[in-house]
Amino acid sequence: MTDIQVLRAADRVASPWKNGGGVTREVASSPSGAGEFDWRVSLADVASGGPFSFFEGVDRIITVVRGEGMALTVDGALTVVSERYRPFAFSGDAQTDCRLLGDPLVDFNVMTRRGAVSADVRFVTTSTALTGTTLCVVFEGTATVDGTALGPLDAALVTGDAALDLHGVAAVVTLS
Length: 176
Fold this sequence. Notes:
Elements: E1 3-7, E2 14-16, E3 22-30, E4 39-46, E5 50-51, E6 58-66, E7 70-74, E8 77-81, E9 88-91, E10 96-100, E11 105-113, E12 119-124, E13 128-130, E14 133-145, E15 148-150, E16 155-159, E17 162-175
């Protein structure tokens, strides 16, 4: 049996960061709304550079979805994350600092509790099958998941098998 939970962009609440450098909007997490999550997916409006929050025992995958990108220094190693829809994985345990490459940006952030859950993040431009526990988020255009319409930044959390009919760009996050 397939379960589909539609998560509308208009229903997300912005939460300011402790360092004042931006706000985040949670798309979905498990357990839902818990401070200690197994996995969490969010969108962040990054207004300025600065240090990232420390998440012990958490793996992170970050993707620039709007803006020019950022230079991340992760435990002393510099990586430029500037190509839209290209995920970059790093440890939430790492000392991480961000410098924006231009104006404010929006990033897509997937965090998983190491040893409990792992995530595969890919961006698709064609229709695709969804299997297992999958979160899809529409970034450009429109989509349907088993006939349920999704607009820009809407998401669907699917448990089971479903068809994503896509006319644009979407993130597909497979959790296992």
